[in-house]
Amino acid sequence: MKVLAAMSGGVDSAVAAARAVEAGHEVVGVHLALSRMPGTLRTGSRGCCTVEDSNDAWRACDKLGIPYYVWDFSERFKEDVVDDFIAEYEAGRTPNPCMRCNERIKFAALLEKALALGFDAVCTGHYAKVIRDTEGNPELHRAADWAKDQSYVLGVLTGEQLEHCIFPLAETPSKAEVRAEAEARGLSVASKPDSHDICFIPDGDTRGWLAERIDMTKGEIVDATGAPLGEHEGAHAFTVGQRKGLKLGTPAADGKPRFVLEIRPKENKVIVGPEALLAVDELRGIRISWAGLPIADAAAGIEFDCMVQVRAHGDPVDARARVETQEDGSAVLVATLIEPMRGVAPGQTMVIYQGTRVLGQATIDSARSTAWDPSLVS
């Protein structure tokens, strides 16, 4: 099989490519140049996809004896990930750019180009696995090592995309084993640290980065009843669950800290309250996609049991979910949580599971708590 190995410059993608070569596939390595922003060209940048990463990817391919290319996806990355990130914050949501990158760049755009060039599949270093059902349809499942499982960030993949995905690290019991294998294979990235932070904000200062791109105007900070407490420099700089940086002059009656409960960008208002009100028990999600064929109940609009996860390494919680069709014909995924979940922000992605299987995902449009009525704040 002709396989395109996506080479991030890290140890996982290098070992995944090595295993694809060992399996007898015709492998070609490619590194995606995603940003032309100056910060990502600097030594020590804390994200992924830097020039240093490109060099590490080239060295890995050279060691494996496979061709290596760099594809410039920077324009599409700006449009589909960076601009989307800004737009989501402007709408009062807290996006996950890595989810959007996986959805629109690392699989949609990359796979589209790979298939056009005659490749059969794309290979990546993600910790997840594809399993076939009794009729041969692909399903996305958690990896063997739950501590490193990345099925959450792949929840945006469709069944058609899963048909052309290879995840060689699926059954690997630990990251330590991957590093040991890389060392044994003589790959220079064996001890390279994992990437972190948002790649296009290399210094990690998300608030400062947004302030340069979104108009920040002063507005009110109010409590859960609508009573004014202070002033902010720009609602877009806040996120649900935030505690620090509120700079409230009036302490709470009980002396306990307050947290951001809701952001209303149209009103330029930030609502804060006690930690207890961060616990939500209903999530409503838009932009639904299914990782393979949807289960029969979901397709029929019948409520079904599942587990919901809202962070890459968060704990899944039991829930009942259903798909509702709105008056405009759009679909909304509604998940009622058996146990409330704390600090969920609109814009996050909820991925739903049954056992180890990823059923699909949706972007959270609202997160509700039955303990608080947002309409109290006019």
Automatic annotation (TrEMBL):
Q: Which region ranges are annotated with the description Interaction with tRNA?
A: 148-150
- List this protein's GO terms for biological process: tRNA wobble position uridine thiolation
Top-rank lineage group of the source organism: Bacteria
List the GO terms this entry assigns under cellular component, sorted alphabetically.
cytoplasm
Every tRNA-specific 2-thiouridylase MnmA-like C-terminal domain range: 282-364
Segments forming domain tRNA-specific 2-thiouridylase MnmA-like central: 209-273
Catalytic activity reads: S-sulfanyl-L-cysteinyl-[protein] + uridine(34) in tRNA + AH2 + ATP = 2-thiouridine(34) in tRNA + L-cysteinyl-[protein] + A + AMP + diphosphate + H(+)
What InterPro entries is this protein classified in?
MnmA-like, MnmA-like_C, MnmA-like_central, MnmA-like_central_sf, Rossmann-like_a/b/a_fold
Q: What is its EC number?
A: 2.8.1.13
Give the UniProt keywords, A-Z.
ATP-binding, Cytoplasm, Disulfide bond, Nucleotide-binding, RNA-binding, Transferase, tRNA processing, tRNA-binding
- Annotated Gene Ontology MF terms? ATP binding; tRNA binding; tRNA-uridine 2-sulfurtransferase activity
Localization, per the record, is: Cytoplasm
Q: Active-site positions, per UniProt? A: 101 (nucleophile), 199 (cysteine persulfide intermediate)
Q: Where does ATP bind?
A: 6-13, 32, 125
Site features described as Interaction with tRNA, chain residue numbers? 126, 348
| Similarity-based family | Belongs to the MnmA/TRMU family.
Role of this protein: Catalyzes the 2-thiolation of uridine at the wobble position (U34) of tRNA, leading to the formation of s(2)U34.
What's the name of the protein?
A: tRNA-specific 2-thiouridylase MnmA
Identify the species of origin.
Paeniglutamicibacter gangotriensis Lz1y
**What lineage is on file?**
Bacteria, Bacillati, Actinomycetota, Actinomycetes, Micrococcales
